User: Fold this.
Amino acid sequence: MLREFPEAPLIGVGAVIVNEGRVLLVQRGREPLKGHWSLPGGLVEVGESLQTAVIREVEEETGLLVEPIELIELLDRIHREGERIRYHYVIADYLCRMTGGALKAASDADAVRWVERAEWNRPDSGDLSVEGALVLDPVTVRVIEAAWQRAGVIKSKENI
Assistant:
């Protein structure tokens, strides 16, 4: 299966893990977007359900055990190189609840970090010239914010 210049889109999953008012991000260890902060996740294996894939990928990248709660967004990630498609992923991003494990960067993640809402909503998010700014893709920020809002709704219903 070719990741670069594929013959067909590849199916992936991502996890927005909300815990104690923070979201977990991973620093990508490989292309596309090497060095950028993103959601933990990866490719779905043949015969694997989307939810099983998100559980496996999160554990492989972060050491954490999660429970997928609900699908937040299904999106395309298409990276072009001239007229050619260098990467094409269709990604199912899930809101997840942490259930256990020990946090550590593993697999293709160079680092892992819990992030407060103010950090991903900064106006300089993604600006490499600003010291300490997270390098986040605007699509990732949109998915995180949607999951954050949904997690708040779910939490308020559980407290009733």
